[in-house]
Design brief:
Layout lengths: L1 H24 L1 H35 L3
Helix pairs in contact: 1-2
Length: about 60
């Protein structure tokens, strides 16, 4: 279990370092990714979760 936690920690650290390198190399692209990409990602995830919940409820109540 400890080994798995260390692996997760190492992956998070490497991911963070890669993100820092990307932001330092491409500051304008990173800014626009955060300005435009993050809200679109949040909306897409919200749509997916809401659709999944609606599908489950509609199957449960026999609407489909």
């Amino acid at each position: 279990m400890t080994m798995a936690l260390h692996m997760v920690h190492d992956v998070k650290r490497m991911e963070h370092e890669a993100m820092i390198r990307f932001v330092q190399a491409h500051p304008y692209l990173a800014f626009y990714c955060l300005l435009i990409g993050m809200p679109l990602l949040i909306l897409a995830l919200l749509f997916a979760v809401t659709s999944a919940a609606a599908l489950v409820l509609s199957l449960l109540f026999g609407w489909l």
